Amino acid sequence: MARCGQPVLRPARDQLQPTPALMRTLTLCLGGDVMTGRGIDQIQARPLAPQLYEEKVHDARDYVRLAEQAHGRIPAPVSPAYIWGDALAEMDRRLPALRLVNLETAATTSMQAWPDKNVHYRMHPANMASLSAAQINACSLANNHVLDWGRPGLTQTLHTLRQAGIHSAGAGVDAAAAQAPAVLPLGDGQRLLMFSWATLDCGVPASWGATPVRSGIALLPDLKEADAQRLTAHISAFRQTGDRVLVSLHWGNNWGMDIPEAQRLFAQRLIELGAVDLVHGHSSHHPRPMEVYRGCLILYGCGDLINDYEGITHPAPFDPSLVCLYFVKLDADSGQLQQLEIVPFQLRHFQLKNTTHSQRQKLRAQLDAACQPFNTSLRQRRNGSYLLNW
Fold it and tell me: What residue ranges define each of the domains in the chain, with the CATH number in brackets?
């Protein structure tokens, strides 16, 4: 069977359901940015002091007030599972082997807010149960908020995740630790390796990059051929026969559907070089297009999953309250994509709720238009989810 990244002759669409004897399936649940700080932290059982250092907002409780003005009272304090709302049943129904997100929040009591940075996200470490409630297996940490409360804040975040039994990648006590993968067992000796890097264009300070003698994140300065070759060699040093590999990339700006050519070529090159089976992109506040290249899935931007933006204006036509979970089915032996099912939700009262028909239609139309250059499209199912056509 062809390994992901190698040219594959695809059968007709009505022949894409092989028997279990011929193909083993690996199902992953992927989410974009999970921002459980600020207003989200304030509704938890043990919130931090609400002081903020933003230009216009100085109290994290103001974000709760804005959400309540928009949609009504939030019943704080909430249970750890509260923020996941209807998403919990959707995850349980599909039985993914692993649940992976980008944690764009420090879990710390540190008061050392990073200077010259306008927005600082943190949650109380005692509220890590809000991630455990969704059975999150691993978090990518290479992003532009994990060091918002300094290197002491990062140290406490890493410790808090370990204590909760949640793996992480993309940040560490030094460069070697930050660039090491989260190694996630899949059974029968097979593993998923999750690597995480961030690029400078998503707002990461260059000084956040981990070095041989300093903690920080795995920073990717550029997206050129040499960088693709370097990442491939790095991944190969960890990869064993039978491993599946996911690379989580925090890159790009917050708004818009256009995918920079450098991102597309870089993601495709990682696949051509046989480095990855799946590219998990994020940073934008809304979902972006998807591509299937040589049988491998590229998610250019998964969008936010959890945020406290209710009641805040945003650039039309984008709506950060419409968010998605991505259920990816791969051939466990080759890494080839079998199916991508996208389940949309709306954020209401800081909770993931099922969408209305008009919301699903709106989001599907936006994504369909953006996917055209990538030869992909979405088909809506009766249960409200979307299936990717390619």
Answer: 25-389 (3.60.21.10)
